[in-house]
Design a protein that fits this description.
It is a single chain. The chain has about 100 residues and is mainly α. The protein has one domain: Arc Repressor Mutant, subunit A (Orthogonal Bundle), CATH 1.10.10.10. The protein contains 4 helices and 2 strands; from the N terminus they run αββααα. A two-stranded antiparallel sheet has the order 1-2. The longest helix has 21 residues. The protein is globular and about 35 Å long. The N terminus is likely disordered.
Length: about 100
């Protein structure tokens, strides 16, 4: 899998609602997206991958997930980030790396 070359803040950019591995339950982890039947935040998986961890290293940290689940989360997350980056400027407007919506043609 190719790494995405962007500094987009994953938590804010990834829309996990379309991923079959994700659920959101009010009152469970404050209603944030989590991997089904776990309390694992999918953003944590993608963030670790973006920081250079291999799939195997991520699996060591999250043994409740299979290698295939981890690969799918990374694939979905990076695809979603690419879509986000295509629709938003890549220049941060603040030191926290927040982005503004670009004018679409």
């Amino acid at each position: 899998m190719a790494r995405i070359e962007t500094q987009v803040e994953s938590c804010a950019a990834i829309d996990w609602t379309g991923c079959e591995l994700i659920e959101q339950i009010p009152g469970k982890v404050s209603g944030r997206p989590i991997v089904r039947e776990t309390r694992i935040l999918p953003d944590a998986i993608v963030n670790r991958y973006e920081l250079g961890d291999s799939v195997e290293e991520i699996h060591e940290g999250f043994p409740a997930l299979s290698i295939l689940q981890i690969e799918r989360l990374i694939e979905f997350g990076l695809s979603n980030l690419r879509q986000f980056a295509a629709n938003y400027r890549t220049t941060p407007i603040s030191s926290r790396g927040q982005y503004t919506k670009a004018a679409l043609p």
